[in-house]
Specification:
The protein has eleven helices and 15 strands. With about 325 residues, the chain is an alpha+beta fold. A hairpin with a 2-residue loop joins β4 and β5. The termini are far apart. The structure holds adenosine-5'-diphosphate (ADP) and magnesium ion.
């Protein structure tokens, strides 16, 4: 006998719907950090400050100097399926912002305490928490504070690891995003102590600051253009290879992605110089028409679907192969050999 029959079909409450959705996007403090920092970037910020307490479980706070949210839109900002980033199917198919699902803030608020304070240029600051709006103080931009992650869903809280492990995931996440946005300054404060301070800079400098020394010391720059897009960044020489694929970064339009076609293209370019199971180190940025990449595949958006994946494979393969084959001494101080 089926235990689910005879109980009647019922609609889920908004709260439960959000908690189910939160299961897809928020699985640990690092995913809160990712969503909040991405929102800050979408808001056009030039400087982003992240505070983490208790591994981010106790508190994640992200403050930016972006466009802010007007008072009359604060309620919508934390409502499910409400977004300022897409309006119709056409915009969805060419979306250039990091967010577009309108789910992150609502999801986070359903599993933790969320306080949002914002001020748009020429107006006063306001806060919203638990649906209540109140006057606040602050410079222009937005600060979102998330406290006591998963206290509303104790079963999920049990899956969290130690504070130091959760903190490490948060820092990895911030560095991964910061690599792709060198023109934005990032600062990270952990339990009241400043641990990361990245001034606004160019790609080379940001990579130099965040990449491990062996990679910094032995890489080639990639800078290639075809009508389909531009590819730039660093590829490690064989001496910077690893046993594990833990120093591989690939971004499409500023978004970190994992994609078999892309990683295969890069690995294939190393076939002549890297043998066995060795894993190349690389950090590559592919900028292309957003219409050619579908990011609406998975809630966390790290999986994508590429149109013309064959052509992109060819392009990446040739650009990396060409960079690795380059033997000219460019400038020893730049880390190129
Ligand atoms: P999405 O990013 O997919 O639109 P979110 O739930 O992350 O959905 O955010 C909802 C909306 O709140 C955004 O579309 C944006 O208008 C606004 N918002 C969120 N964070 C910020 C921020 N830091 N600065 C300005 N606006 C923001
Ligand atoms: Mg968002």
């Amino acid at each position: 006998k089926n235990i689910y029959t005879g109980r009647g079909i019922r609609e889920l409450s908004d709260q439960l719907v959000s908690q189910i959705a939160a299961g897809e996007v928020v699985d640990r403090p690092a995913s809160v950090v990712k969503e909040l920092v991405e929102n800050a970037i979408d808001a056009g910020s030039t400087s982003i400050e992240v505070r983490l307490d208790g591994g981010g479980i106790k508190r994640v706070s992200v403050a930016d100097d972006g466009c802010g949210i007007p008072r009359e839109e604060l309620t919508l900002a934390v409502k499910r399926h409400a977004t300022s980033k897409v309006r119709d199917l056409d915009e969805l198919e060419s979306v250039a912002s990091l967010g577009f699902r309108g789910e992150a803030l609502a999801s986070i608020a359903s599993v933790a305490d969320l306080k949002l304070t914002s001020r748009v240029e020429g107006s006063d600051a306001f806060s919203i928490m638990d649906g209540e709006i109140s006057p606040a103080s602050g410079t222009h931009g937005t600060r979102i504070e998330v406290s006591d992650l998963f206290y509303k869903t104790p079963a999920r809280r049990k899956f969290l690891k130690s504070e130091s492990t959760e903190l490490a995931h948060c820092l990895t996440c911030i560095e991964r995003i910061a690599l792709a946005y060198p023109n934005i300054a990032f600062s990270v404060i952990v339990n009241g102590k400043s641990v990361i301070n990245l001034p606004a800079s160019g790609t080379e400098e940001r990579l130099s600051r965040l990449m491990p020394k062996d990679f910094r010391d032995a890489h080639r720059a990639v800078d290639a253009s075809v009508p389909i897009g531009n590819l730039y960044g660093w590829v490690g020489l064989p001496t910077a290879a690893r046993a594990r694929a833990d120093n591989q970064y690939f971004y499409i339009n500023g978004r970190f992605v994992r994609d078999k076609v892309l990683s295969h293209a890069v690995r294939q370019a190393y076939n002549d110089v890297l043998h066995g199971q060795s894993q190349p180190s690389y950090c590559l940025f592919l900028d292309m028409d957003p219409k050619r990449v579908d990011v609406n595949v998975h809630p966390t958006k790290s999986e994508v679907r590429l149109r013309d994946s064959q052509a992109i494979h060819q392009f990446v393969f040739h650009a990396v192969e060409e960079a690795l084959a380059r033997t000219t001494i460019v400038d020893p101080s730049s880390g190129e050999i």
